[in-house]
Every structure is written in structure tokens, then in C-alpha cells.
Amino acid sequence: MINRNSPIPLYYQLIQKIKDQIESGVYEPGDTIPTEIELMEQFDLSRATVRQSILYLVNEGYLRRIKAKGTFVNTRPEKPKFIGTLKGFAQEMSQKGIPFSTKVLEKHVIPSPLKASEKLHIATESPVFHLHRLRFIHNEPVLIANSYIPENICRRIEDIDFEKNSLYEILEKEYKILLHHGRRDFEPAMLSSPQEVRLLNISSKTPILYVESIVYTQDNTPVEYVEIKMRGRFTVDLIQML
Fold first, then answer.
1. Which end of the chain has less Cβ packing within 10 Å, N or C?
2. pLDDT for the residue numbered 77
């Protein structure tokens, strides 16, 4: 059900619920979704909130509306992807002469979460190095990054100061791991964590860009999975840099 105590707007919660049902196959391409009245009754929402959610999904390509017939599911849209030569945040900022800094929020070895395990092709709860960082440009917080790397390829990496060192440079120079290419998926999102809202210094109702990235070696072995939450006002410039 809709969580009315959540800082996430009601219309966006409904968007996520419908998207989840489409992406999981509950609604297949060509299926009709419930009517506005049915969604209003199911989730106890106003017509304006339901319409805002439907319009968003139509604009995003998930749904199409046919007059006098209903709202239908489109073929599931592909997320934008990027595959190419890798450069880390620090290297990009340095090369462009942009003042930046990093605050390490956490760095430790933990049992791998389910999603990271799937992306890294390792067993669930295998040891991974978790690096949680807040990145700044011109002393303004711009993004939060959570990186996961299999611990067996980077033992004792948690001892390194990542406020002064680049993760990618350490992997290549200290651990002889040659990073070759990466894949990045982008989608709009909202922050649900009050801590992340505070760290990025934005309103809980401010949209962000959510990025998932997997970094591979030349033989296509995944070595890093990272989740990035980026402030909207910086997204255009940072997508070009990342």
C-alpha cells in the first residue's frame, strides 16, 4: 500500500508500484491497467494524484492512452546504457581542473547484499568491500556512491584512505586489476532516506538521478558494482563526465 508517512510524494509511490508491476511481468505489453477510479479506490488517492502518476508513465513510455478504450502497457522501455572506457570521478575532475573532494562515510568488509551479489556474479553474503562516499564539487555535495567489490580480489583495501586516493587507481596500481569497460543505467528517482536528503542538502521532494554501474575487466569479469544518487542540478554535466 501507499505509505503516507514516507517523505516520497504519493504520486511517485504510485508510479513506482505500477512500474514494478510492469517490469516484473504482472502487466504484459498490451494489457490494460486499472482505471483511474479503480486506482483511486485501491490506494485511497485523489483523482489528481492518480492522473499525475499515469501522465508521468505515459511520458516515460511505459503506458499509452487510447481514447474511450483505456490505458495500455507499452513494450517495456530499455533504460539508457553506457558502455565505454572508464575513468573515475577523481580522474575526470582532475583532468578538467574542477575542484572536488570526497568524504568517506563507511569503508568495511561486509556480507554481500543480494543485489550486489547478482551484479558481481558471486554467492549471496560473500565478503565484499563496501565503500560509501559523499562527493563534492566546489564544496557542494553532488552525489552519494555505494561501491561493492569482491573482497578476495582486494584484501586489506579497507586500510586505504579513500579521501586522498582514487578507488580505480588503487585497484589498478596496488591490486593489478585492469579495468576495461563499464555499463551504467540511469533513471529518475526520489530519496527515501532522511540521512541522504541531509547529506545532499536538498528537499525530500527534489528528484534525483539514480545510477547503477558495473565495472568489468577485459575478460568481462565484474569487479565493482556501484549505486549512485546524484543531485539534479549537476546531472547533465556529471553524466558527461562519469
1. N
2. 55
**Same-domain status, 62 and 141:** no
- Last residue of some domain: 46, 73, 100? 73
Q: What pLDDT score was predicted for residue 76?
A: 61
Q: Are residues 61 and 85 in the same domain?
A: no
Q: How many domains does the chain have?
A: 2
| The dihedral formed by the CA atoms of 227, 195, 187 and 32, expressed in degrees to the nearest 10 | 120
* Ramachandran angles phi, psi of 94, nearest 5°: -65, -45
Would you say 42 and 48 are in contact if contact means Cβ atoms under 8 Å apart? no
d(CA 123, CA 113): 10
Looking at 73, 91, 111, the residue that finishes a domain is 73
Per-residue burial over 102-125, b = 16 or more CB atoms within 10 Å of its CB, e = otherwise: beeeebebeebbeebbebbebeee
CA dihedral 186, 192, 195, 197 (to 10 degrees): 70
Asked whether the beta carbons of 197 and 203 are under 8 A apart, the reply is: yes
Report if residue 37 sits inside a domain.
Answer: yes
Residues 214 and 122 both lie in one domain: yes
In order of 21, 37, 53, 156, 229, the CA distances from 41 in angstroms are 18, 6, 15, 54, 33
Write out the residue range of the structural domain in which residue 41 sits: 10-73
Half-sphere exposure of 95 (CA within 13 A, CB side): 8
pTM confidence score:
0.66
| List of residues 6+ apart from 101 with CB closer than 8 A | 135, 136, 139, 163
The reported pLDDT for the residue numbered 236 is 45
Report, as ranges of residue numbers, the positions in the chain whose pLDDT lies below 50: 80-85, 235-236, 239-241
